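anyone else get weird line breaks when pasting these?? whatever heres mine. first is seq + tokens for prot A
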Amino acid sequence: MIKSAPFVFVIDDDAAIREALDGLIRSIQLNVQTFGTTNEFLEFSLPDVPGCIVLDVRLPGMNGLDFQHELTKLGINLPIIFITGHGDVPMSVRAIKSGAIEFLTKPFRDQELIDAIYLGIDRDQARRQAVAVFSDIQARFALLTPREQVIMREVITGRPNKKIAASLKLSEFTVKLHRSHVMRKMQASSLVDLVRMADTLQIVTTA
């Protein structure tokens, strides 16, 4: 296992397909784990690394399209690449509309799957980075006192300190002090920076 590499999870009930995909994915220096059923995948302890799922549409029990929705309900947000030997246009449209990266009909070219895998991993890395940024900003916001949170909501509207002070019935000095604390705790280098953080947190302003 290549510890630093992303992970690709293959779910297909055909052992020959699993073996072929296992070899292909290892050849591009990625970790791979194969499963014959969706239950096997759900019982697996997912590593905390970027990855994607290569998922057969037709599986015993729950089919791939239904499993796609099940993963969403479970909060498993790995990008999905569908593979099938019996695809049709409505099926592929449904899969893509539900967020699938690609819908490949067997037999497909190795490069088609490799390209889709790299795209899936890139998207998962971007998602994980966005989650990390959100969590970091959320943690900073939680350090603000209730009064500082109110001041932040006022500040991001662009109001000058004097108007904020009048609105909150505070002295201008107190507003400046709280504003300074907000900028320091949020690690904001400018008002624009603070506004971007507020947008990330979807903070509702007092305007």
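and prot B, same format (seq, then tokens)
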Amino acid sequence: MNVDCTATVFIIDDDEGVRHSIEDLLGSVGLRSKSYATAEEFLRSERPDGPGCLVLDVRLPGISGLDFQRELGSAGWTLPIIFISGYGDIPMTVKAIKSGAIEFLTKPFRHQDLLDAVQQALQRDHTSRESRRELDELQKRYTTLTPRERQVMSLVVSGMLNKQIASELGASETTVKIHRGRVMEKMAAGSLVELVRMTDKLKLPASR
């Protein structure tokens, strides 16, 4: 498996033997891990701010794994979750997967199945982080636009021609061209199609 040396796999299981076994398995392929006996212990701990995933037992003292998954989702956490359980059943599995879990493994599981699930989870987290970074960068670019440039951008992506935008704004076509050029430059858009995609990612309403 491809190993991301910056990633951390967080393990939450009240069985110390299971925690150590998973830590050893992950360490054998070069993956860093941190383990906890309860969800509360995980929340109280200091965690590295980098890519990662969560290997979570369903039955835990205190808050259960499924309830913890729901709480993390409500709090906006996007850490991918792999469930492990000695008592898995189909309704429980369906509920976990529908709520966004990567995998639901019943103990004892094959080592390779867990490693495959971890690889998938880390890839999902990497993709999610890249998307958030891209959106943050787009938002920063958008904030550099003047109010008039934002108006022009909105009208441009709605499909209006320069002369139509000029009429809409009560400006000259030359002025609109200047604003449009600045919008393309500040947003680092190489084409109208790129600008439209940026608007979609920013969830900006297009003028009609």
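btw re prot B: The longest strand covers residues 52-57. The radius of gyration is 24 Å.
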